[in-house]
Design a protein that fits this description.
The complex is a heterodimer of chains A (about 100) and B (about 450). Chain A has one domain: 3-layer Sandwich (Rieske Iron-sulfur Protein), CATH 2.102.10.10. In chain A, strand 5 and strand 6 form a beta hairpin. The mean pLDDT of chain A is about 95. Chain A is mainly beta. In chain A, strands 2-3-4-8 form a 4-stranded antiparallel beta sheet, with no helix packed on it. Chain A has a 3-stranded antiparallel beta sheet with strand order 1-10-9, with no helix packed on it. In chain A, strands 5-6-7 form a 3-stranded antiparallel beta sheet, with no helix packed on it. By secondary structure, chain B is of the alpha/beta class. Chain B has 2 domains: about 300 residues, Ribonuclease Z/Hydroxyacylglutathione hydrolase-like (Metallo-beta-lactamase, Chain A), CATH 3.60.15; about 130 residues, 2-Layer Sandwich (Nonspecific Lipid-transfer Protein, Chain A). In chain B, the strands form 4 sheets. Chain B has an 8-stranded mixed beta sheet with strand order 7-6-5-3-2-1-16-17, with helices on one face. Chain B has a 7-stranded mixed beta sheet with strand order 8-9-10-11-12-13-15. Chain B has a 5-stranded mixed beta sheet with strand order 20-19-18-21-22. In chain B, strand 2 and strand 3 form a beta hairpin. The longest helix of chain B is centred in the middle third of the chain and has 26 residues. The chains are: A mainly beta (about 100), B alpha/beta (about 450). The interface between A and B is medium-sized, with 18 and 24 residues.
């Protein structure tokens, strides 16, 4: 199943929820769009309140840090985030759930 | 209804008819003679409120389940604990001689009298056992998070109970990066980041629960042994002080909650009035206080550490047998750990060992004496404390939390599976943990 998001709805460096079930978030870093799981795999905190610095997202609850380009957890390699492939078609961003 | 704060995660909750004491660590150091309270004085037995109706103990870490403090209590006092996946904490409480132990299921409401209801809440983490407590009376509701790692959903459930007062953790109770072999610059960078994350964590927990009043507690310890004095430094260390919590809240908090700073011995009423009986330790006076307290406890601490004993002459055999057993019994853990450990027992009768957790090593021996160059983890610990741990007289986590050891890792990354095995190598527990883990993450 795919989700289509308009580019204009994903401003640069803002975390946007594009699906609530499963929870999927998206970030535009100025060059690429990154879609990833929206709950922290450490203790199930929503990641939309997290802090973005460059390509890293830090969960506000316990400081788990993720590289949003590949989902890698920088504190604990056993708790990576799921990432979703995105495809750009004109003004649309399409991601496969 | 009022609450007296007694340091670290210890609170005395006084309702109209009952007194519940939570997580009593009041006197002496904990974590093998290493941690002390963030306090400007050393507490003594006169600070222990033994005239209580209930003890609540959140979990097994010694800054919550402190044997030296618990010795001062009658064994007839009812003890409340959480129902955990294993019985090991229950067994530890039984071992201390307590006769009246009530185990409560997570979120199960227990009426202790007509006007007192308690709810114990299990932590959200898979690999360790911890809990928090909610206390409700007609006068008000109090939440004690203790050290408990809780999901956002669990804290929202707490918020639904509309707590008047919430005690929230802000401390970094961990050995990373203190014991690791980093240069000072890197260690300071990691520490600064960890401290910031803990302060952000406090702000996030409070915002999720939205009590009228929030108190930072379950805070960082202080280290008074001369070998660890530097880690207390507020400029470079990871251990925050309450003034830093207040600064973080003022930047990112919400008006609906007021932060109250309490020092050990201070009291707060359910209406938010604080009675000051002590002065808190802040970042601007912390090191001065630590120097003073370090000198004050020096002789006692030396006596305590001298009393720990020395390792037996057959320590090496004990280490090899212990690790060979736990690694061979837990292939599910080994295939996930998948590293080699250079394990060093320091001191008299010590030695060097190779622990092989490689996933492709399908038969023993998994532990032997010797050294290797291609280790992934390096762990150097006091031999006499290792001996206690391999004989189940000391939890590995307690030893690790003491920060009385050295570590290194290649690559430089956390191996949660290794620490999970150290946490409790019981094969049944390991099997159960990975059944859930695989459903969640595979």
């Amino acid at each position: 199943m795919s989700i289509t998001v308009k580019k204009k709805d994903v401003p640069k460096n803002k975390i946007i929820e594009v699906s609530s079930s499963p929870k999927i978030l998206m970030v535009f870093d100025g060059q690429d769009y990154h879609a990833f799981g929206g709950m922290c795999p450490h203790a199930q905190w929503p990641l939309e309140n997290g802090k973005i610095e460059k390509q890293n997202l830090t969960c506000v609850a316990h400081g788990y840090e993720f590289d949003i380009t590949n989902g890698n957890c920088l504190n604990n390699p056993s708790r990576d985030l799921k990432v979703y492939q995105v495809k750009i078609v004109g003004e649309d961003i399409i991601l496969e759930k | 209804m009022k609450v007296k704060f007694l340091g670290q995660a210890c609170t005395l909750i006084e309702t109209k008819n009952k007194r519940i004491l939570c997580d009593p660590w009041i006197i002496g150091p904990c974590n093998v003679n290493s941690w002390y309270h963030l306090n400007n004085k050393i507490s003594d037995k006169t600070d222990i409120p033994t005239d209580i109706d209930y003890l609540y103990i959140s979990h097994e870490h010694t800054d919550h389940f402190h044997i030296e403090t618990l010795k001062e209590f009658s064994r007839d006092i009812p003890v409340l604990i959480c129902k955990f996946p294993t019985d090991r904490f229950y067994n530890a409480v039984v071992k201390q001689g307590f006769k009246d132990i009530t185990i409560l299921n997570s979120w199960e409401k227990e009426k202790l009298d007509d006007d007192l209801e308690v709810t114990i809440i299990k932590n959200s983490e898979l690999m360790l056992e911890d809990s928090a407590m909610l206390i409700k009376t007609k006068e008000g509701t109090i939440f004690c998070q203790t050290d408990c790692g809780m999901s956002y959903g669990a804290l929202q459930r707490v918020a639904n109970e509309k707590p008047d007062i919430g005690f929230f953790k802000f401390g970094a109770a961990n050995w990373y990066p203190v014991v690791y072999n980093y240069d000072k610059k890197k260690k300071d960078e990691i520490s600064k980041k960890r401290k910031l994350n803990k302060l952000t964590g406090f702000v996030s927990y409070v915002k999720a629960v939205k009590p009228k009043y929030a108190i930072p507690y379950a805070g960082p310890p202080i280290f008074l042994h001369e070998s660890l004095i530097d880690v207390n430094d507020p400029e470079t260390g990871m251990f925050a002080t309450p003034d830093e919590v207040l600064d973080a809240w003022n930047k990112e908090g919400e008006d609906s909650t007021q932060i109250k700073i309490m020092a050990p011995s201070d009291e707060i009423s359910v209406k938010g009035d604080v009675t000051k009986n002590n002065e808190p330790v802040f970042s601007n006076n912390k090191m001065e206080i630590i120097q003073k307290l370090s000198e004050e406890v020096r002789d006692d601490l030396k006596k305590r550490r001298d009393g720990e004993g020395t390792a037996s002459t057959n320590l090496n055999n004990q280490i090899v047998d212990y690790f060979d057993k736990i690694i061979s019994e837990n292939p599910i853990a080994r295939e996930r750990i998948d590293i080699k450990v250079q394990f060093v027992a320091e001191g008299k009768n010590g030695g060097e060992f190779v622990l092989d957790f490689s996933k492709d090593k399908d038969h023993g021996p998994y532990a032997k004496e010797g050294t290797i160059d291609d280790w992934n983890y390096y762990m150097k610990l006091p031999g006499h404390l290792i001996e206690k741990a391999v004989n189940n007289r000391l939890l590995w986590e307690t030893l690790f939390l003491s920060c009385r050891w050295k570590a290194d890792r290649k690559p430089d990354q956390w191996n949660e599976h290794l620490m999970n095995l150290f946490y409790d190598p019981d094969p049944k527990r390991i099997e159960n943990v990975y059944k859930i883990y695989d459903k969640m993450f595979k």
